[in-house]
């Protein structure tokens, strides 16, 4: 079977052919043509178009073509699911999704500039994905120093010296405070700040920010940290205002009340409605136990 997509492939347009070749059709042939010729050439060569808009094999929401192929062909290998997260993070600039995403983006960004032949890039890309898959399948929990006692000892000495040096400096980089301020400034609006935009505003490398973020933000990734801060802000509004839940959802950056309710329940263990009722019931109960305060009111 022939498959066809845009020329100059990078991350997803190499990962998807690799997945098809390794798990669906080992005789698959992949064609790369200019974007505006994909559908025309697909009809001419009777090839399946992929990774372009308005075709079956493409992106859906935040997910990549690689994700779609996994679901379409019922591929359930845990290592492939891990690989899908890495591909998605690299291909959509959401490097916080997986620690390997930034590296994968860097590798294919460099290769796309040094290799001009698409088929040669595909061949080398297959080798890269073979290696990455094998790592995820067999070695993702291992570390470089585990099998080298001498190197491990040297590394421990180095880490001790480094820790002593860091303890003499501020324990928290300047950008941490600035980023907390940026996030706080965005909480009362339709939250649109992402890690890449934050890195640009802070004038630091996005990959560095992605790697270092959890160390200074409660061991959470960017998305989870922001989600919890938004829920905390929504709690304040529920307890101290008469805004409707729809208004609170909007004010704290959720797309709609349904989305707000789902995330609130995940974080707090009950819905916003139940939370508000519980608070009001507690408040009414405290008033009934203190008649003098009610009289004063």
Model description:
The chain has 297 residues and is mostly helical. The chain folds into three domains: 138 residues, no CATH class; 30 residues; 109 residues, Homeodomain-like (Arc Repressor Mutant, subunit A). The protein has 15 helices and three strands. A three-stranded parallel beta sheet has the order 2-1-3, with helices on one face. Helix 12 crosses helix 13. The protein starts with a strand and ends with a helix. The C terminus is likely disordered.
How do you describe this structure in short?
With 297 residues, the protein is mostly helical.
Number of domains: 3
The tally of helices reads 15
Termini separation comes to 79 Å
Major sheet, described briefly? Answer: 3 strands, parallel
Elements, N to C (H/E): EHEHEHHHHHHHHHHHHH
Strand composition percent: under 5%
- Oligomeric state: single chain
Shape: globular
What is the radius of gyration?
25 Å
Number of strands: 3
> What structural class do you assign from the helix and strand content?
mainly alpha
Portion in helices: 55-70%
- Strand arrangement, major sheet: 2-1-3
Average pLDDT metric: 85
Uncertain spans: 293-297
Protein name: Helix-turn-helix domain-containing protein
Keywords: DNA-binding, Transcription, Transcription regulation
Biased composition (Low complexity): 288-297
Organism: Algoriphagus lacus
């Amino acid at each position: 079977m022939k498959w066809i997509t845009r020329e100059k492939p990078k991350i997803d347009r190499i990962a998807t052919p690799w997945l098809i070749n390794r798990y669906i059709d080992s005789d698959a042939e992949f064609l790369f043509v200019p974007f505006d010729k994909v559908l025309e050439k697909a009809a001419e060569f009777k090839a399946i178009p992929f990774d372009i808009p308005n075709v079956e094999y493409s992106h859906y929401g935040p997910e990549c073509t690689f994700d779609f192929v996994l679901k379409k062909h019922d591929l359930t290998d845990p290592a492939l699911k891990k690989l899908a997260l890495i591909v998605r993070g690299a291909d959509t600039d959401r490097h916080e999704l997986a620690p390997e995403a930034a590296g994968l983006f860097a590798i294919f960004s460099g290769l796309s500039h040094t290799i001009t032949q698409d088929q040669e890039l595909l061949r080398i890309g297959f080798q890269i994905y073979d290696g990455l898959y094998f790592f995820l399948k067999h070695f993702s929990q291992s570390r470089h120093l585990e099998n080298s006692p001498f190197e491990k000892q040297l590394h421990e000495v180095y880490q001790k010296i480094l820790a002593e040096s860091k303890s003499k400096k501020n324990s928290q980089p300047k950008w941490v405070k600035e980023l907390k301020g940026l996030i706080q400034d965005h909480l009362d609006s339709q939250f649109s700040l992402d890690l890449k935009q934050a890195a640009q505003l802070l004038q630091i490398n996005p990959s560095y920010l992605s790697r270092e973020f959890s160390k200074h933000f409660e061991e959470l990734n960017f998305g989870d940290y922001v989600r919890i801060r938004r829920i905390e802000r929504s709690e304040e509004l529920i307890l101290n205002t008469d805004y409707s839940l729809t208004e609170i959802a909007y004010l704290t950056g959720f797309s709609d009340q349904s989305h707000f309710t789902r995330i609130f329940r995940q974080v707090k263990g009950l819905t916003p409605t139940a939370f508000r009722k519980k608070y009001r019931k507690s408040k009414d109960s405290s008033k009934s136990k203190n008649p003098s305060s009610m009289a004063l009111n």
